[in-house]
Amino acid sequence: MLYFAYGSNLNHFQMKRRCKDSVFLKKFELKGYRLNFRSKYRAADIEKKKNSIVTGGLFEISKSDEKKLDLYEDFPILYKKIYFKYYNKKVMTYIMNKKTQFRYPTEKYLNVIKQGYRDCKLDDKFLIKALRSNK
Fold first, then answer.
1. Which CATH superfamily is domain 2-130 in?
2. Which parts of the chain sit beneath pLDDT 70?
3. pTM over 0.90
């Protein structure tokens, strides 16, 4: 199954530790969404927004990986799953159920994401913009 990561799961070390079967395929831009941080956890989330892009990574994951991600993402309480098509393949990602106001992420969490951006060779201007535009 294909999984789109946009937060701390971009970090290859963390993703491999959490989902042993996961394989990073490529960087990917999800159009029509923007990155945000919210909830008491100050965690990454995406929300629909015209003319916006969320940069992230596409991973191949197994069924057991998905179950582990469900636990980590507190599915279905904190996050729900959404699906989109990529070359006729179904891609799964998580979005928060409750769209609470912006909460700046902790330094530790942000560093995990920054490493993920480096691991996936993503342009961190998208991350910086999300942190700035939501303050």
1. Gamma-glutamyl cyclotransferase-like (3.10.490.10)
2. 134-135
3. yes
